[in-house]
Structures are given as structure tokens and as C-alpha cells.
Amino acid sequence: MNRILVTGATGQIGSELVPALRKKYGSDHVVAAGHKRTPPKTLVEEGPYTSLDVTDIDALTTIVQDFHIDTIFHLAALLSAVAEKNPQIAWKINMEGLQNVLEVSRAYGCAVFFPSSIGAFGPGTPRDHTPQDTIQRPNTMYGVCKVAGELLCDYYFTRFGVDTRGVRYPGLISYETLPGGGTTDYAVEIFYQGIQQKQYTCFLAEGTTLDMMYMPDAVRAAIELMEADSQQLKHRNAFNLTAMSFAPEELAGQIQKHIPGFTLHYQIDPVRQAIADSWPRHMDDQAAREEWGWQPQYDLAAMTKDMIERLQKSQV
Ligand code: AKB
């Protein structure tokens, strides 16, 4: 990796991945491309920033040519709950965007990181110790795009030799940028409201256990996978990846240790509950551990402590 493009740079992952990449590879070497969201000042001031609609292949080509890009972290996509509201738009952005990235990478010799998700699984998948290679028949547009995306990335690797790599991210928890329209968003919102109001009303039911990860681990995973020795990778698109697994009441229990009196209430959103009920409770991420040394650093207790400390500091 030498000259890097990050699409979806203003999103939840992008806004933390870009600074990490700039720190490691040099600010001038990492181009941040956002679209609809207003970029944070730092993203624009600390290195090259551009606006990009990933469905516009000519605009994408120009950026890759102008900046001599050799690696693309393609993060631009609609999340699960939003995609369910706009399935046609989700297909266009999530699939056309990915195909454009792969086509340009084929033409210009770029490596590609594609984030898949626990959303790539469906109701027929084993929900506990979900194997790396298993049934993938999701019943959401987001999941359909993720499975198709995994296959398309593998196809571009075997057919054209494009160095595609990806992970199946669980729900991601972060303090920099809020997620936009996912099923696991409650695990971020609970901290913001918990600190301000000492209570949170959760849209997923008690007992809804899902895989989760703290953003510093998620960012490190993306970079470590792209730096891994290609020869060691038997799987490519995409590796199961997890760090912790919990239900809303377990997260609330941890939060109560730092915010005494915090209370959790429930008001179930049937759409997001149905999506969550079709996703793994706990994935087996042994392949990632064996093939490129994946090791999470944050468990539920460590993540909760760090989230609360950082959010409290930023609100002072
Ligand atoms: C979502 O909830 O849509 C995402 C995901 C798990 O892929 N956070």
C-alpha cells in the first residue's frame, strides 16, 4: 500500500480509518472521498479530500489516475435498515459502486478492501459459532448486496487477479461518528443517551445477542488484512470477524457500572428486530486468526469503559 483511496470516508468506519491510514502511510498518500455527509474539518485539512459518487465510474477513474492510487478501501454503502427502506437505491449504490471500484482496480492494478458484514448471513445460517463457510441466504437487500459483493470480489480475484480482500464486520461501536441506519446502531446510541439522560429506549428486544466490535479493532483489522502476506490467505472475501457478543441488557449492565442509575427500556422496531433475528449471535473467526493473525483487543468491559471515558471527555 502506497497511495490509498477511501470511499465513504465520512461514514462511521471511514472517519476513523482515514486518520489511521494517514498516520501510518503519510497524509498526502491517503485520499478521502465522501459524498453526502459534510466532512469533518480534520478530514479535509489533514490530507487530500474529494467528493465522489461511487456510481460515477468516470469520476472514480479520474481520482485513481490523478492520485496514482494503488489500494482502495471501498466503504461507501447504505446500511441494513436504510437499505430495507430503499432496496432499489441500495442495490444501485452498494452493487454498482462496488463493480465500478472493481473495474477501475482491474484497469489500474489496485488492491481492494471490501467490508462485508454479519448481514451476509440469513435465517438458514447456524447462529452460534457461525462457520466461515456456511449457508448464506440473507433475506434483506443489504445482505443480498453483501453476499453478491463477496462473490464479485472473489470473481475479480480468480478471473482478473485483482487483489481483493474483505471481512464480515459485526456491529461496530464508535465515539467519533454515529452510524447511519444500521440494525446494530442501538449499541452506539445507548452510550450517547446514557451519558446525557441516564436512560435509553432500545429498538431491539431483550435477549437479542449479536456479534460486536469496537472501532479501534475494526480499523486495525482492515489495515492488517490488507498488509497480510497474500500467500497465507486461503479465504479472501470475506473473513468472519468478531470481538464480543452481547444482548442489550448485558451492555446496559456494563454501562451501569460507570453510570449508576442508568436504566434500559424497550420499544421494539419490528423491521430491525426481524433483521437482527436473522443474523449470527456469535461467529467463528478462526480463519482470520489462523490466516492473518487476527486478535481483538477490546472485550465488552474494556470497550464500555473506553467509550464512556471518551464521550464524557468530549462533552466537557
Ligand atoms: C448494520 O447494522 O447494518 C451494520 C452491519 C452489522 O453491517 N452495522
Automatic annotation (TrEMBL):
Q: Which InterPro entries match?
A: Epimerase_deHydtase, NAD(P)-bd_dom_sf, NAD(P)_epim/dehydratase
Any one GO MF term held by the record is: L-threonine 3-dehydrogenase activity
Which CDD domains does its entry note? TDH_SDR_e
GO biological process terms, alphabetically, are:
L-threonine catabolic process
Every NAD-dependent epimerase/dehydratase domain range: 4-232
Top-level taxon in the UniProt lineage: Bacteria
The similarity annotation says: Belongs to the NAD(P)-dependent epimerase/dehydratase family.
Q: What is this protein called?
A: Nucleoside-diphosphate-sugar epimerase
